[in-house]
Amino acid sequence: MNSGVREVCKRCTVIGGSGFLGRHLVEKLLERGYIVSVFDILQGFELPGVTFHVGDLCDRQALLPALQGASVVFHCASPSPASDDRALFHRVNVEGTRTVLQACREAGVQRLVLTSSASVVFEGTDIKNASEDLPYARRPIDYYTETKIQQEKLVLEACDPGRGFLTVAIRPHGIFGPRDPQLVPILVDSARRGKMKFIIGFTLNMITLAYSPALLSWRAEGRVRPRELTPSCPRQAYHITNDEPVRFWEFLSRLLVGLGYEAPRYHLPYRLVYGLALLLWLLAVLLRPLLTFRPTFTPMRVALAGTHHYYSCARAKQELGYRPLVSLEEAITQTVRSYPHLRLGA
Q: Where, by residue number, does the polypeptide cross the bilayer (predicted)?
């Protein structure tokens, strides 16, 4: 009977487990002996010990079988931040999360861990060593941020210790690592087309990043809730990074040089580039019924490239026992090593 109890406690579900972040989490959970179910819009891979459930996140009846017997659910599903489909963001991040919360209650899930984003407090201006006390962005810079704010509020407001349902939001920032379909491939594609010669703004703006496997190694150990959570305890969100602020353009340069490409050298004024990005974004929106195109530099990307945005992990360290398991130096090395096919001349 005791072994049965342990098995139930080791069951979990990863919503969005076919994606970049979700797959890393699934692998780490398996390493630690969890029985894992994955729910996603498609099955992205096969692993022994993983049960896949394919369906629409907004379909509660499709979602419920994936949650049966799970004591903890990790909610990682979200459209790519690069998308400009407002309806899709709202459907997945807002309506889909409402469905997840309903299904979790119905299935008797005890804990829900949301992968939120540090962008929920970002308005395109400098953020330096920010704590979680910073208010939500009043003017979200894109649809992704707008709906992530709504999503996080839904999850934290659903926390109900009195009824045995605990929720917490993890706010990683600048996630990268092996198999990342966004940062490194886009960076290399831009370099190959001669578009990585320029530095936007000044070179001293600092950022913090989150190396995916290291981040998820911690999360997979089950330390996913405040230790002293009580009915009167406020709902919590936690910044999670590698805890090593680095200059944004230095980070990009190390990735590029590691793969054999030249680092950016020429400077462009930040306000000029941001204004052009905003103009192109507005044109894309206005011309969408007639013409579809996606600007390379969106206002969000320009803002991220030209401002300070680094966050404090003090609360996660103190309340969750968080610590980065891989240094930033090692994280960059492992990431570069994982992309031999993207090296110059490959």
A: 198-218, 272-291
pLDDT tens digit sequence for 44-78: 888 988 999 999 999 999 999 999 999 899 999 99
143-174 b/e with 16+ CB inside 10 Å = b? bbbbbbbbbbbbbbebbeeeeebbbbbbbbbb
Written as six digits, the tokens of 302 are: 């320009």
**Residue 245 DSSP class:** -
Radius of gyration of the chain (CA): 20
200, 273 contact by CB (below 8 A): yes
Q: How many CA atoms lie within 13 A of 128 on its CB side?
A: 6
Average pLDDT over every residue of 209-236: 61
End-to-end CA distance of the chain: 56
Question: Is residue 144 flagged as an active site residue?
Answer: yes
Domains annotated for the chain, with CATH where assigned, are 11-179+210-242+311-325 (3.40.50.720)
Rounded-to-integer distance, Cα 278 and Cα 103, Å: 39
Question: Looking at residue 135, what DSSP letter applies?
Answer: P
What is the residue whose two structure tokens read 């490409």?
Answer: 261
Local confidence band at 296 (pLDDT 50, 70, 90 cut-offs):
low
- Please report the DSSP string for 48-86 in residue order: TTEEEEE--TT-HHHHHHHHTT-SEEEE-----TT---H
Tell which wins on pLDDT, 346 or 86.
Answer: 86
Secondary structure E strands in 177-242: 198-200, 206-207, 210-211, 237-240
Using an 8 Å Cβ cutoff, are 97 and 169 in contact?
no
Q: Among residues 217, 218, 246, 177, which one has the least CA distance to residue 316?
A: 218
List 143, 144, 261, 311, catalytic entry: 144
Which 8-state DSSP code applies to residue 90? I
Q: Which amino acid is at 47?
A: L
